[in-house]
Amino acid sequence: MDTSLILKGTGIRGVSLHHVKAELVMFKVDWEKTSITYQRPEGMVATMVQGAYPNKTLVLHELIAGGCANLNIKIQLQDENHPLILRIYLRDKDASYREQKLAILIKETVPVPLTHYIGELEGYRFAITGFMPGLSLRDLLLGDVPHDLGTIMHEVGLILSRINAHEFSEAGLFDKELEVIGCKSSDVIKFAQGCLHNKTVLSVLSPEVISGIQKAIEQYVSLLPADDGKHLVHGDFDPANILVNKIDGLWKVTGILDWECLTFGM
Predict the structure, then answer these.
(1) Pick from 244, 263, 247: which is nearest to 255 by CA?
(2) Structural domains in the chain?
(3) Are the beta carbons of 15 and 24 closer than 8 angstroms?
């Protein structure tokens, strides 16, 4: 039986189902489960919005599908022309401050949503950010809407170079204030090895798999970030976090989202 087919939207023919599955993994298809597995407490959205805009009325809100760890809710306030995003951080609360400060730093060269407000309610950190219209590049590539892939990817490459052009004083990690916490490549190796001893990891992965990961760390240690990697890296730069929109008949990149994993690199 011939399992080859045409991969929608790419113009690539003769693709096996094995390669299609690989493509779906690469594009994080069905990874986003927060809208299914997490239920918001009744009235939470309205209360959060009221805390940020006490003199405004929430007209409507809808959960945006996607997001592996956080909730993104599109909100519309009365007498406002443009919607906003209510972003609830379920994994890393401090990412809200990092994303806010980073947007201010790179907004002139990279299309990013600006954060207007950060608050906390019943232990939940949330932010109100600007809404950026469009659909994810992942959805465009996996769909059947005609597009010029070469032109889009050229623009993506230019934006990636602008991100990488931001250089800091030393290599390390960012704290909530976007200040650098210095660390060396050896610290990264220790962290990776330490994760293999985590209780959750030990309860889920077999000793054989853990051993295999350990060997991979040792074998590919040269590929880990060097101590002189001082350039800004998104950390999760893939089609699921790249927004595109059709403007004057052409698909354009309109936003780079989800900077929760930002770090340093070459």
Answers:
(1) 244
(2) 34-130 (3.30.200.20), 185-223 (no CATH)
(3) no
Extended beta strands in the chain, E state: 5-7, 12-15, 58-63, 71-77, 84-89, 115-121, 124-130, 135-136, 172-174, 180-182, 231-233, 242-247, 250-256, 263-265
pLDDT recorded at residue 21: 45
Question: What ranges make up the beta strands (E) of 52-131?
Answer: 58-63, 71-77, 84-89, 115-121, 124-130
- The long-range contacts involving 2-11, CB below 8 angstroms and separated by at least 24 positions, are 8/142, 8/143, 8/144, 9/140, 9/141, 9/142, 9/143, 9/144, 9/145, 9/146, 9/147, 10/141, 10/149, 11/149
Enclosing H/E stretch for 254? strand 250-256
Residue with tokens 């996607």: 66
Three-class DSSP category at 97: helix
Give the pLDDT confidence of 190-229 residue by residue, as tens digits.
Answer: 888 888 999 989 999 999 999 999 999 889 887 776 666 6
Rounded to two decimals, the pTM is 0.75
